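Hi! If you just cloned this repository, the fastest way to understand the data is to look at a raw example. We've pasted two of them here, unedited. The first protein comes first, obviously.
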Amino acid sequence: MKYCINCGAQIKDEAKFCPNCGQDQAKEVDNEQQTESFTEKEAVKQSLAIGKSYFGYFMEKLRRPNADLTGNLTYFGYISLGIYLLLQALLTTMVISRGLSAIDQFFGLIGAYDYGYDPFSFNESLGGSLGITFFLRILFFYVLILVITIGITYGVERLSLKSPVSFNQTVNQLANFLSGINLFLLLFTFGLFIRLFSPIFCLIIMLLAVLFFQSSIIFVVQRNADNKQAKIAPFYIVLLVFVLNSIVNWFLTIATIG
């Protein structure tokens, strides 16, 4: 004898329906089979979700840059920052290379030297005179600036807020607005590669991307200062972050150029 899965009445072992409530006893077997099927496919579903998750994060940040998106993996911000660094370094290398190539062509046209040899040609890739080594140097320069910027922002918030945010949260907050910036950088990098845009125009876009990113840092610091009970006036926290970042980045740029 067994018991009904619905009402608990005692029924025969071979009974398919409960004589008391009419419950189909086979549903218990179906539920077990569904559970087993779900368990077998869980790894595949999770793998697909991970593969699509950053794209979903990217699209959501395009629609709502300031959304917290609780539940997303903490490394999404690092991915956005990495893409931003790569695109900025690539676009910078291409702008400088195309600019030098234009200067070289100009001197060749006016007969300043034999134009049979072009020392600044880009050759449609990073394989020209300003090749992968130059690209890596530019990338290292941007990484250094970004690390210092994040460090200053996190350090100032750590000292000035009564309940400071974590380092991962700081990184993800600073990356909130990068989906739109990265999309524009990607479009103009491709446009410069196919010679759709001029190097000067792409240089302006690159500088605007830096300006928007710096503005997003100020916005994040201001919001955290308002929400986390700042020890001093939020205005002074924002001003301190801006001044420190500007001074350090200025000296770093001068040292690199010099």
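Ok, and the second one:
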Amino acid sequence: MRTPLALALTGAALAGCTVIPPADPARMQSYPPAYPQQSAPPPPPPAASYPAPAVTPPYTPVENTAPAPEMPPAPPESPLTYAALGQTVTVGGPRITPLQVLEDSRCPMNARCVWAGQVRLRVRIESGRGGELELTSGKPATVADGTLELVEVQPDKVAGSDTHGAVKPSAYRFGFRFMGGY
């Protein structure tokens, strides 16, 4: 015996479904079988009555004489704006001043490294809210109504030099790109 809860759950599970009652075997005898047995197919006519197979010429590709559609040109990237530590430059709107190199883990140009490394830089921004921001090379940061990216750092590090790969702070040049409004 089913409980009212079980009946309610069964009804909810079957909502929108059609329940098909089981077939009555007595009524099934009056219908023809679903897949009536057929006799064996007639034998094929003798081979002489078939036409000879057609000979198809080998495939030769047709050259496309229409010119390929031209792709629209890629949007031009804004040029890089370079600055030294302590130098203020305008980068597509915001004014940026590199303040301090927090990390320079770039792989030296004459070495093989598992990881290319990165440069982390603290900068002062003079636009909108302003303030200081930490930029990591290759990772755009949201500034005002666009993104600011540290794209390039010069000079390259060199392994085996008298500075052991370190770059003097006065030699750094940072290439910035701003993409956005203004």
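That's it. A detail worth noticing about the second one: The first strand starts at residue 81 and ends at 83.
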